[in-house]
Amino acid sequence: MDDTARHWSLPLTPADGSGNGLHRGIELARHALEDTGVVVTFEAPGAAGEPGVPEERAQDILLVVSELLSNAYRHTPGPTGLDIRLDRERGKLTVAVTDTGTRRPVVRAYRPTQPHGHGMHIVDRLAASWGVTPAPGGKTVWAVLPAP
């Protein structure tokens, strides 16, 4: 397989439920990152460069996957798939969640006193770009991040 371009895909159904589907999506993203040689842990950080220390970009990718999947479970009938594409040649990683909703996500103003409603604000801050593409039976919300 060409190491400059990789693709990971996870079919989902609304019946997966947010807990199971979200867990499976995060595991796919962790697997994809580990395939690229990035060690992803949530242990207390040690010295810089120490094996197992989380890399900031890897954490950003996992957070974007979590936010996009959470939004699909919370605001639509449910996601139908998660795709992660790595393009090392262009230095980017694209995370895409397809769902059965038609309503576009909105970046809300940041309100630190509110515990919810910050998902797309986080995606907007972490991603180099993001957008929505119509898909059969719904839409795909995608975000482009720097490749790990």
Q: What gross morphology would you assign? A: globular
CATH topology: Heat Shock Protein 90
Neighbour order of strands in the largest sheet:
1-2-3-5-4
Strand composition percent: 25-35%
Radius of gyration equals: 15 Å
Please estimate the helix content: 25-40%
Class by SSE composition: alpha+beta
**How would you state the average pLDDT, rounded?**
84
Following the backbone from N to C, one meets helices and strands in this order, namely EHHEEHEE
Query: How many helices?
Result: 3
- The CATH superfamily is known as Histidine kinase-like ATPase, C-terminal domain
Alpha carbon gap, first and last residue: 18 Å
CATH architecture: 2-Layer Sandwich
Tell me the domain tally: 1
Number of strands: 5
Low-confidence stretches: 47-53
CATH class designation? Alpha Beta
Outline the biggest β-sheet.
Answer: 5 strands, antiparallel
Task: Describe the protein.
With 148 residues, the protein is of the alpha+beta class. It has a single domain (5-146), classed as 2-Layer Sandwich (Heat Shock Protein 90), CATH 3.30.565. It has helices at residues 17-35, 56-75, 119-126, and strands spanning 5-11, 79-87, 92-99, 129-135, 138-146. A 5-stranded antiparallel beta sheet has the order 1-2-3-5-4. The longest helix is centred in the middle third of the chain and has 20 residues, at 56-75. It is globular and about 35 Å long. 28% of the residues are buried.
